[in-house]
Amino acid sequence: MPLESVAWYSEMEVNNSSSPNWRLDKGEQTANSNARLSTAQAHYTPPESPVRSAQRQSSYAENGFFQNYLRAFCHFEPPTEAEANDEALLMTVRIQPGDLILIHSVHANGWADGTVLTTNERGWLPTNYCETFDHPYMRNLLSAMTHFWDLLGASNDENLSTFVRQDYVRPLIAGVRFLLEHADCLHRDAPLVQRSTGLRRLRKGLLADLSSVVQIAKRLQEVVAEPLVGDAVQHLLDELMVKACKAVTRAVGFVDMLQQEGVGVVPLKQSSRKSVRVAVDTSAREAQHGKAHDGSELPDPIDSGKCFTEPAEPKQISEEDQAAAGDHVRSNSQKRLSRGPGSLISHRLSTVRYDAVHSDGLATERLAQAHDVCISQIAGFIGLYLHSSNPASELAAMTRRLQSTCDTMLDVLDRIAAVEPLGSCSIRKARRMFQWKLNDLTVETDKLFANAVRLDEDIVMEPSHRDHLVELSTSLIRAAGDCVVKVRRIVEQIGDFDLENPPSTRQAIPHDEDAVTGANNTEGQSHSSDPRPATSSTDSQSRSTQNASPTTRQRAKTTTAVHDLTRESSAKTSSRTPDKSISLTIPSYTPMESKADAAAPQLSPPNADTTKSARSSRTHSTSPVRKFSVGASISTSTDTRLSSMRDSGITAVSEISTRATTPDHAKDAPALVNSVDSFSSIPSTGNVESSIDAEAQLLQKTYANELTLNKDGQVTGGSLPALIEQLTTGDTAPDPQFVAAFFVTFRSFTTARELAQALIQRFDYIGEDKAVGVPVRLRIYNVFKGWLDTYWKVDGDREALGDIRYFALHKLKPLMPLAGERLLESIRKISASSQNGSASATFAPGPRKYNALSVSQEEIDCDAPEPMITRSQLNTLKKCVADSTASCSVMDFDPLEMARQLTVLGSRMFCEIQADEFLSLEWNKKDSLKAENVRNMCLLNTDVAHFVGDTILTPEDAKKRALVIKYWSKVATRCLELNNYESLMAIMCSLNSSVVQRLKRTWELVSKKSRARLDELNTVVDFSRNQMSLRRRLENAPTPCLPFLGVYLTDLIMLDAGNAKLRQLPGVRTSTGEALTVINFDKHMRMARIVAHLQHFQTPYKLQEVRDMQAWLHMHLDRMRSCNAQMVGDFHRRSLYIEPKRDAASATHAMLALPKLPEFRRATDPTASRAGAGSRDGSGGEEQQQQQSQSQQLVRPKTAGYAPTSKSFKSGGQAFEFLWKTRFDFKGRGEGVVEGT
Amino acid sequence: MSRAGHQREHNIAVIGSGGVGKSCLTAQFVQGVFIESYDPTIEDSYRKQINVDGRHVMLEIMDTAGTEQFTSMRELYMREAQGFLLVFSITSLSSLHELTELREQILHVKNDPHVPIVLVGNKSDLEDDRRVSRSRAFALSQAWGNVPYYETSARRRINVTEAFVDVCRQIIRRDLARGAAYPSSRRGAPSRGRSGGGGGDSRRSRRTRDRYDHDEDDYEPHRRRRDRHRCVIL
User: Fold this and answer.
1) Structure confidence by residue, pLDDT tens digits, B81-138
2) Does the entry feature the keyword Ribonucleoprotein, yes or no (chain A) (predicted)?
């Protein structure tokens, strides 16, 4: 039976700790890059057991949620250099009562990896010296701080794009503002501030800290913009972090002071869930404290500061204990951080990225796995029953499988629920539901099998029965999904954690282990070279097997038992491994009262016995040689990697999958000058400012807390005011990409009128302040101007014009006459042009939109290469267009010229497309006028494809057809050279269509070279893997380029379908307590990125247009368009006609001979008449006439445009085709009628 | 039945006219429950591994969403795909009618009357706007050789996976059956099809073969099973 949980550590992967940067001390660390910082983190060596500093035991209030912030209430001193000649000892950090600590991960043994904000040191610290810190006023600031940390931590040299702007500090400011606002201290002359000197001072300090954060951010921005950055950036980043930490620390002090001043916390309506939890914890804690301390002062649940301002605990270990320290006693029980059995370490959920190697162990991952398997089994189950008449044995096997997977799922659920006992209520409910459904299903299937006589017999099921089963299983799926959602929600709150360790690698990792003390290291050498004592590891393994039992119960032991056993075990261990055994404990903490509350998740109260036990066991460790302890990170060196992953830049890698394909324009942001930016002269706010100005600037009303950014600092979501704020930042130029995306897409999440009003509101609330108000107001003006001049949509935005005019006249003009005048000017222009009804070129949305009219043809012509066309060809063309009987063949033209003309044709159409045509997503709706140009483009593609098919299928001679194929393959190659992917795709589609592909005889005659060329082209247009090869090419295609639109159109549609309109803001609550849902700007950003990508292709080709050829092409394409609908069937028939199926092997020239026709016809007759029988009697005659006219229409222009070789055959072929066609159209209709009824 | 250990890959095309919610259907299927943002531009945006009757299969969904007008491309999709989801919206009768033509084309291209198909009536959550009655859609599915008919709601995530799994199951069954009936796999040259068949044009022969196949069904257990697909209306 293991003793109370004294962590015991195997030495597993310590050897990495030789990195010189292992210590995150701010003195040493400042020059180090953050990336290094984080990798170093992975190699943390364990903390020293904090025995000496166990002066006071107090409650550690871990309430079950993963807490991002802890607050120390007790002093913890890492050993000095003198005592610790080992690095391991230095990995711990000093904590002082009152220190606020940002927690990165928590090991099950109670050590946490955290950054002490007061000192900005990072290291391991004992969580039982700390309690959770949560103050309603502070939440926004703290959550901002967490993001801030992540942001800075994630940045490395390659990724400094965030810092070209200062937005990332804004949430911090918003957090402080939130705090001050709710504390009623927003203004300097607020009564509370006037009254209390302390508050006044702290408030001032806080604001000063904040403004220095802003200053540094500003400096950083300047430095990053410079070409050669290096250490300077790192230096600034470190400084920034220090300052931010300081500000937060100060804010904590402020909250404490507030408490002292007796200002009650006006309860915000926080998320009910959370506040309830706090209350429960508090009361539970108080009860325990009451017992333990006999009324000693309890920490206030909210004002945690009290517990250090008035320390209640006597100091119990004197200094000489420390001085004498050769031996450190590490026997103690340790309450784990409310993680469930088997959970080793918990992380902030946000920090955990899925990682292929380690993902298995994380609760969420396991759950997802179990869920997936479960769902697919149920699906399989449904499928099996649905399709019935399976042998009973198969059904039985399936049912068994289903049950076992569901059991696995339940098991996972249980284990997660065990970890989080309080919050698991909802899980349990969902779980119960799930189990019920499962039981129902089992019962039903059992019934079924009861009826089955023999196992190998098919089970006959009533349809109703089957339906019932299917219904049950679908509800089972739903229940499972519900469970997952619930669990996920809980896990988000408590942090993700390792649910279970794969036995192979982690067996030796202790969970709640007994004390194994007395480790000596006579050599005093670094533990990294220290071989692992075999006895210990076996020991640990044997023990870890017992870990599965819930620790809470184990903890219900008498203290005496604990030390007796501890003593024993320590003696035993040290005797067994006198030299090498490594020992460690968490700072001691023995739960004496725990009998009473075995199930309580809180730590039991501290008591004097603990120290006694510590002492007594210390006396038992006899070795005089200095020991060192191997702390948490040994065993967690694998596990912590997960958390350190966040900073180490691997996070960035994990995001690359998405980033790789979306070019990151943000990086060149500083180089880009935004049109919106052009007017305003931003006064430098960074220099000498009075404190009043600084304050006003800092405390401006802001919605920054309603904004989320991703790791790159790009906006992913926000409420409209928050987005507007981002659009009109006073201190930095707004991100041009953001501005463009906003303007292009805003109509899909708001209306023009709302936008105008929100901008005006921003104008109002920002105030007239010189330092803050004026630059922002100028920007607001700029936004309006940019909107009116560049992005205005005549019909869509008209409703906002009145508002804007009012604003310009009555608000802007009085303050900024010049700006007001200019805005009015723009308004006048717009209203004038809208009255004229001319959508003039100025109103084309999108700054880069090319307008065909604006570039003169001459300009193009002078640079363009000479068309490769002869005079005689031109004459023929002219004749062709004028007179439909004249003909000329595509083959007459040079392939290059053909490619060029196709390009000119497509490019012109492409350049017509407006940005909002793409965003309307309406090119598929036939009656919609919103995306006409896109639709035309699509149709053009099809027309070209049909044209190609038509030319191939027309010649009767296989040799000729082969030549036509060769010709088009050349054209396609030329198109690729011209970056004309649109025509390339059309041609390839046609060449790959079944009607062309099936022409075996023709392909036999196509030269090897042409076929090789086509193979090559096929790799370009390859459909597989989401058209990756085409995407890659288009991504980096130089302009001018005519992209294949289909890829982008699908992307746009799928983006719209796959991303929600709104997103929830993590960690931010509205004042009414609900999670804030804001506009999912990420979606719009992505769409805008696609549109921008397309727009950047909208540059005209420098190619000369050959008018006659264009006319000729148009003629043919129009012909294709006119019979677009019938094309598929028509081609099929023609393909069969020129190379009938049955003759595939023989008779190359068979089809040229007319006599064959009757026979052929006869062969088709029976089928046709049978199929067409239904409709023939009624409408046959009429249809025949229709068909006749149609087919003539079809055939005549074709022969006109393309001269077949044998004139004599022409009429015969036509006649035949007509007959042919009629047959099949009958059949088609016949089927339609049958199906329709 | 083999418990195929190695993973197969199947292409499934989602086909239907614009605005029937194909994209939502695909997005719902491919996307996990908790994906923060869906990026359709990456290589595996349309790939999903599922488990069908104990077999792990990788599905690549080919969605024609947004490119319905590229009729020439449609055929390439059809050639690549082994199974088809023919989607219409229960709120639009014309979307159902358009499927008839599309199915015709599929049969052309695949040259196979038993190509795995599932008829899907999407937007089942919009019951009030229903324009296509269940019986009507079901009758059509029957007329198509008893293809399964599903009514789905991409928005509510009802029956989405089921429809895909059904096609996938059909593909697997077919592969298995072919493996038994035709030792040499005839996949890979779908467009050339059953070129060894009798004379006449392909339509006629397909028709007749269709007929024969139906007759044969009575003697072929796997066929029979397939033909007993029922309409599932949940």
Assistant:
1) 899 999 999 999 999 998 998 898 888 888 888 899 999 999 888 888 899 999 999 9
2) no
| Partners of A123 in the β-ladder | A114
For residue A1168, the chain B residues in CB contact (below 8 A) are 204
Architecture of domain A136-265: Up-down Bundle (1.20)
Contacts of A318 (CB under 8 A, 6+ apart): none
pTM for this structure?
A: 0.54
Biggest CA pair distance of chain A: 119
In this complex, which of A376, A470, A658 lies closest to B51 when CB atoms are compared? A376
Distance of CA A644 to the CA centre of its chain: 19
Chain A: residue whose CA lies nearest to B17: A924
- Residue ranges per structural domain of chain A: 66-78+89-134, 136-265, 363-494, 700-833, 889-1042+1101-1138
Say if the Cβ atoms of A1058 and B40 lie within 8 Å.
Answer: yes
The one-letter code for the residue type at A640 is T
Q: Which residues of chain A register pLDDT less than 70?
A: 1-67, 78-90, 108-109, 153-167, 225-230, 262-363, 385-392, 419-424, 450-463, 491-702, 705, 711, 769, 771, 836-863, 884-887, 1066-1075, 1142-1237
Domain A66-78+89-134: CATH superfamily is SH3 Domains (2.30.30.40)
Q: Is A346 helix (H, G, I), strand (E, B) or coil?
A: strand
| Number of residues that this document lists for chain A | 1237
DSSP state letter for A268: P
- Does any CB of chain A come closer than 8 Å to the CB of residue B96? no
Strand bridging mode B83-89 / B8-15: parallel
**In chain B, where the domains are located:** 9-178
**The CATH homologous superfamily of the domain defined by A363-494:** Alpha-catenin/vinculin-like (1.20.120.230)
What number is the ipTM of this complex?
Answer: 0.77
Give the right CATH number for A889-1042+1101-1138 from 3.10.290.10, 3.10.129.10, 1.10.840.10, 2.70.98.50: 1.10.840.10
A377 in B contact zone (CB under 8 Å):
yes
List phi, psi (to 5°) of A114: -150, 165
B218-B220-B226 Cα angle (round to 5): 85
| CATH number belonging to the domain at B9-178, selected among 3.40.350.10, 3.40.50.300, 3.40.190.10, 3.30.43.10 | 3.40.50.300
